[in-house]
Amino acid sequence: MPQPEPDTFVPNLPLRNGLAMTLYTSLWASRHWQEATPVPEPPYQPKTFYGAGQVPLWGLVAQQPGGGRGTIVGTYGITGDLDNQWFLRLMGRKAFAAGYSVVLFDWRAHGKTAELSPALTSDGLYEGPDFVHVAAQAKAMGCAVPMWFTGFSLGGQLALWGIKTAQSPNLEADYGIAGDDIAGAAVICPSLESDRSLRYLEQAVLGRYLEQAIARTLQALAWRLHQLHPEHIHPKAIAQATTIRQFDHHLVIPRLGFSTTEAYYKATSPLYFLPALTKPTLILYAADDPLFDPTLVPDIKRLCYANPALQLMLTQYGGHVGYLNSTDGQQSWGDPDLWWAWNRILHWIGNER
Fold first, then answer.
1. How many CA within 13 A on the CB side of residue 244?
2. What is the per-residue pLDDT for 302?
3. For a Cys-Cys bond, which of 84, 91, 290, 306 suits 18, CB 3.0-4.6 Å?
């Protein structure tokens, strides 16, 4: 497919730095996003879905009267929950205003899902099937097809696993949904190769700071799971999980049968199955993302450009899940607000229908 130039997103000058964009988005946009979003909250209804292995997944569903244009199913990144993941709730507002039904869910070990089940994360191995199960149950309750999967950061990785799962030849028999009902995926700053990016963070001064901040949140998540389900997670393992890699080593991989985190990361990283994706998939990726190894960019370009099902929008700027557009940029694109990434995704989905 024709690929856009790398300068299609040009933010204000102070934000033309990945770390600056990332921090500003986290500190400013997280507090002011509702003021900068000219559409209201959809009429969500709570819903408990059931994923792979009948694991309960807590979600929110907003259905369009009369069906609408289809349904967008999404989740968020490595930490948080539906109550505080404003960037996902922002997507829900914009997607519903654009005529889509919206399904959001707390993925494994997160939010209210953690209250319902002690199931830990698997970086896609089970979350990919979870996406498809959620889509099938949403369709059964009246959400319109086609359905699209979305997410950002690690949630983008999970959505890509969802599309990989949706290509199963036994999809309808195993999940109760037809292959054509799941149209594709669109993701923002997805984690595509975990081991290389984690090593990059572990070796850089600022990277170590970011890694430690994420690790502390993961350890807090594990302690919460222990409080909710004390018989399933041993406190000694949680106490040893002081880094992201140690969290996966002590808590995640023993349950999944991996002997090393390196083997686990290779098995779960979407970079290695991008060539096999056949459903339309949009990947928004910033070359200055401070959380990912910059040497991945040539590999991502090569793999995406070789697969006609993939469209890569690679930008010079954007940071990690930032993409706050300038006024000039909004006018250039004809956007109603500064949320460049979600505007591109909704426009792309609209054109792919």
1. 24
2. 97
3. 290
Number of Cβ atoms within 10 Å of the Cβ of 37: 20
Comparing C-alpha atoms, which of 205, 193, 213 is closest to residue 285? 193
pLDDT of residue 353: 64
Selecting among 122, 153, 194, 197, the annotated active-site residue is 153
Q: Is 101 a catalytic residue?
A: no
Burial of 303 (0-12, 13-18, 19+ CB in 10 A): buried
Q: From the candidates 110, 133, 250, 320, which is the catalytic residue?
A: 320
**Could you report the per-residue pLDDT of 209-245, keeping only the tens digit for each?**
999 999 999 999 999 999 999 999 999 999 999 999 9
Question: Which structural domains are found in the chain, ordered by start?
Answer: 13-193+274-352 (3.40.50.1820), 194-268 (no CATH)
Predicted local confidence at residue 195, as pLDDT? 97
Query: Which residue of the set 106, 288, 289, 293 is catalytic?
Result: 289
pLDDT higher than threshold 60 for residue 39 = yes
Residue type, 105: F
Instruction: In whole angstroms, give the CA distance from residue 94 to residue 89.
Output: 9
Query: Among 173-177, 181-185, 349-353, whose mean pLDDT is lowest?
Result: 349-353
* Cα within 13 Å of Cα(305), Cβ side: 11
Catalytic residue list contains 320: yes
Q: Tell me what pLDDT residue 4 has.
A: 41
Q: Provide the token pair at 200.
A: 């990059």
Known catalytic membership, residue 326: no
Distance CA 177, CA 1 (A): 28
Token pair of 244 as six digits: 């992201």
